[in-house]
């Protein structure tokens, strides 16, 4: 009987709990250090070596003892993420990309949803630190000072995502929401619109929504345009709220010829409500949004919007945080570009 057959018989007799790291190494034909690197730092070993180790792990049904490994390394290989909600597909898509990247590096993702409540985000952060996270991803910067103090005191690496502020003290990987709406608003102005309304997302505890609103208002002001009273409404992000917002701005004369929406869900609702009241988009009224949600291309007419590269954003966010966790050099912040996607929902204003 050879050694490998003996290992397999040992597994059959005693169960997987008795299988040791050394058993995996012997079956794979490598050192115990190579097994550890293949599982914990796969980028440091060849694909062939990692494949041999994973095959041995599968054959022996070996599961590393998480608590023991964490005590030995002072790492749990767990990354936390506090996001506003998983109901928003943009956050869900980004977290999917984050999770894929983390799993490639041997880490697991733990997600908490704050429901746009900074106090709840603090409780979730503290709980995650108690669970031993190695690093933390946060959406935006609207959190109490005690959260930042806690991260600093506990030496927890972190990164802000889905926003970018070049003057911020906090490391971030994201895009400039303000500049995105400067560009979107200038596009609407370039079509010839001057009677413009905005359906903003509620800005309380949401620095991304606040930056989008400021981007539009500042751009209009630079052109000598002020939104008419009643032509700026703030709504929760949803299709239904977009429909309500559109009805409200249409109720104030003179009616706008263009509506800038803070996100695509509000914009979809606005377009649907236009159809319901008999307005042609874009002949009677133009509608634009932001984020380039999947539904934007399937709407009739297809929605003009700003495309946020959520998958790339997720990958870069994970890479940035992993570099900080593992002590590798990384820039303080990384800015991504967003792209104006011109489709059929926006055009010139109707002739008088």
Brief account:
By secondary structure, the protein is α/β, with parallel strands linked by helices. It has three domains: 21-73, 434 Repressor (Amino-terminal Domain), CATH 1.10.260.40; 78-175 and 310-337, Rossmann fold; 177-308, 3-Layer(aba) Sandwich (Rossmann fold), CATH 3.40.50.2300.
Task: Characterise this structure.
With 352 residues, the chain is of the alpha/beta class. It has three domains: 21-73, Orthogonal Bundle (434 Repressor (Amino-terminal Domain)), CATH 1.10.260; 78-175 and 310-337, Response regulator (Rossmann fold, 3-Layer(aba) Sandwich), CATH 3.40.50; 177-308, Response regulator (Rossmann fold, 3-Layer(aba) Sandwich). The chain is 47% helix and 14% strand. The chain is built from 14 helices and twelve strands. The protein has helices at residues 3-14, 21-28, 32-40, 47-60, 66-73, 89-104, 118-130, 145-153, 177-190, 207-222, 239-250, 264-276, 295-298, 310-325, and strands spanning 78-83, 108-113, 135-139, 158-161, 172-174, 196-201, 232-235, 258-261, 286-288, 305-307, 334-335, 339-341. The strands form three sheets. A six-stranded parallel beta sheet has the order 2-1-3-4-5-11, sandwiched between helices. It has a four-stranded parallel beta sheet with strand order 7-6-8-9, sandwiched between helices. Strands 10-12 form a two-stranded antiparallel sheet. The longest helix is centred in the N-terminal third of the chain and has 16 residues, at 89-104. The chain is elongated and about 85 Å long. 41% of the residues are buried.
């Amino acid at each position: 009987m050879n050694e490998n057959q003996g290992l397999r018989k040992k597994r059959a007799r005693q169960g997987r709990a008795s299988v040791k790291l050394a058993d995996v190494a012997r079956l794979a034909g490598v050192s115990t250090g190579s097994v550890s690197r293949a599982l914990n730092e796969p980028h440091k070993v060849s694909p062939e070596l990692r494949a041999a180790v994973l095959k041995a792990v599968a054959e022996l049904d070996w599961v590393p003892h998480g608590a023991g490994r964490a005590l030995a390394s002072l790492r749990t290989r767990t990354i936390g993420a506090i996001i506003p909600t998983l109901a928003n597909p943009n956050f869900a898509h980004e977290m999917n990309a984050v999770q894929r990247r983390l799993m490639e590096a041997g880490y697991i993702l733990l997600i908490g949803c704050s429901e746009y409540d900074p106090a709840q985000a603090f409780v979730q952060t503290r709980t995650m630190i108690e669970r031993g996270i190695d690093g933390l991803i946060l959406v935006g910067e609207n959190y109490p000072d005690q959260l930042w103090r806690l991260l600093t005191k506990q030496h927890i690496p972190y990164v802000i995502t889905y926003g970018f502020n070049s003057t911020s003290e906090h490391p971030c990987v994201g895009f400039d929401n303000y500049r995105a709406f400067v560009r979107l608003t200038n596009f609407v102005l370039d079509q010839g619109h001057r009677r413009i309304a905005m359906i903003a997302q509620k800005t309380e505890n949401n620095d991304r929504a606040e930056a989008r609103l400021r981007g539009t208002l500042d751009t209009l002001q630079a052109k000598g345009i002020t939104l008419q009273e009643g032509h700026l409404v703030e709504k929760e992000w949803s299709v239904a709220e977009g429909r309500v917002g559109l009805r409200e701005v249409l109720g104030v004369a003179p009616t706008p010829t263009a509506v800038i929406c803070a996100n695509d869900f509000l914009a979809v609702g606005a377009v649907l409500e236009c159809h319901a009241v008999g307005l042609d988009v874009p002949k009677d009224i133009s509608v634009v949004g932001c984020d380039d949600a999947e539904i934007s291309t399937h709407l009739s007419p297809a929605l003009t919007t700003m495309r946020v590269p959520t998958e790339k954003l997720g990958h870069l966010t994970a890479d940035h945080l992993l570099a900080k966790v593992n002590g590798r050099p990384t820039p303080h912040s990384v800015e991504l570009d967003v792209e104006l996607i011109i489709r059929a929902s926006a055009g010139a204003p109707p002739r008088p």
